[in-house]
Amino acid sequence: MTSLAWAADAAPAPGGFASFLPLILIFVIFWFLLIRPQQKKVKEHQAFIGALKKGDAVVTNGGIHGVITGLTDTVVTLEIADGVKIKLSRPNVAGPQGTTGGECAPGGG
User: For 19-52, how does the pLDDT look when each residue is reduced to its tens digit (9 = 90+)?
Assistant: First the structure.
């Protein structure tokens, strides 16, 4: 009985390229659906950070709205209220004010 088990050959595996085709297809799908859009978003954010100037109204990653009053190569100074200024690193500026979550109406909650 054991001789029958040894005599049976396993099915031959498909060719080298054909076995990697599904893996390559999955990588291409991930590239176009996840990696490429993220790289594009990062590039746009870096261009925005490089184009910051005094007087721009921005929102930080923490959700703080303010107006830029000072800039260095690595630090942004924001005025978030009359006489209240904070310093944060440039990459922590999320985007221009009004595009990253909307603003509350005056008197609203």
Answer: 888 899 999 999 999 999 999 999 999 999 999 9
Report the alpha-carbon distance of residue 10 to residue 94 in Å, rounded: 58
Q: Are 68 and 56 in contact (CB under 8 A)?
A: yes
Chain mean position to CA 3: 60
**Which token pair is 34?**
């996840």
- For residues 91 and 67, the answer to whether their CB atoms sit within 8 Å is no
- Which among 82, 32, 92 is positioned nearest to 62, based on CA atoms? 92
CA–CA gap between residue 93 and residue 89 (Å, rounded):
8
pTM > 0.70: yes or no: no
* Token pair for 106: 């005056």
